Amino acid sequence: MTNASNAIFDAPKAVPAQSSVVAREAAHFGAMAAQWWDPKGSSAMLHRLNPVRLGFVRAAVDAHWAGDGAGFTPLAGRSALDVGCGAGLLAEPLARLGATVTGVDAAPENIGAAAAHAAAMGLPIEYLAGGVEAIAGRTFDLVTSLEVIEHVADPAAFVAGLAKAIAPGGLLVVSTPNRTALSRLAMITLAEGVGMIPRGTHDWQRFLTPDELTAHLREAGLTVSPPAGLAFSPTRGFTLSDNTALDYFLTATRD
To answer: From 87, 130, 180, 202, which residue has the greatest number of CB atoms within 10 Å?
Structure first.
């Protein structure tokens, strides 16, 4: 366990040039690697968001594979890929749901933190440093990429990479902020302004609307479901909503 823990602080390895990776974005998130699992650290907002994200993914999995919503391991016997996995906040729950999990992240520091935490938890998760290109030629039953596409170099090419990673009959779940006045106010002016989210995390101009992301998914040959909104209430925290103005989920399938 000592050697695994030290992986967080190893000197980062260079990430090969890949079309989806923006170097400054990888560096920004890599700088937060040691705090990913601290619910009061720089990733505190993700910890607050994670239960809703997991609930949505679980519901999508049950709907796609006719699950009953009651079992503990609805992904048993299935493979899952989390692209932009950070230090494993989603990858680890996917493993506990029974999946054989691979996580990919552009920041090698995050991969070090993720591998160390998974080892401490006894979870056999495969972690790879790089962009979506790192899993080229491989396919998975479930592919997730949550709050990631707004940070990549070319959204259309990134979606094409995600689509190629979906096995026939598989499921894709993506989420991202919407490009609206509300998201600019809430996520940048307020959240980054007061330090709830590290300053410089978001570039509002790179947010995608549901129509734009749906078009990319369809161009990649996927069948797309209507978006589900993600809202925030000061009293209830993050909740699923019909309102997509702040943030939203999309699911897509490959026939």
So the answer is: 87
CATH number of 2-253: 3.40.50.150
- DSSP assignments along the chain, one per residue: -HHHHHGGGSPPPPPPP-TT--HHHHHHHHTTGGGTT-TTSTTHHHHHHHHHHHHHHHHHHHHHTT--S--S-TTTT-EEEEET-TTTTTHHHHHHTT-EEEEEES-HHHHHHHHHHHHHHT---EEEESSGGGGTT--EEEEEEES-GGGSS-HHHHHHHHHHTEEEEEEEEEEEE--SHHHIIIIIIIIITTTSS-TTS--GGG---HHHHHHHHHHTT-EEPPPEEEEEETTTEEEEES--SSEEEEEEE--
Three-state DSSP state, 123: coil
- Flag whether the pTM goes above 0.90: no
3-state secondary structure of 10: coil
186-222 pLDDT, tens digit per residue, is 888 877 777 667 777 778 899 999 999 999 999 999 9
What are the tokens at 223? 């069948």
Averaged in consecutive runs of 10 residues, what is the pLDDT profile of the chain (255 residues)? 34 47 68 79 83 96 93 96 96 98 94 95 97 95 96 94 97 97 88 72 90 98 97 88 96 91
10 Å Cβ neighbour count for 235? Answer: 4
Listed by start position, the domains of the chain span 2-253
Question: What's the CA angle centered on 98, arms 144 and 218, to 5 degrees?
Answer: 25
The pLDDT assigned to 18 comes to 53
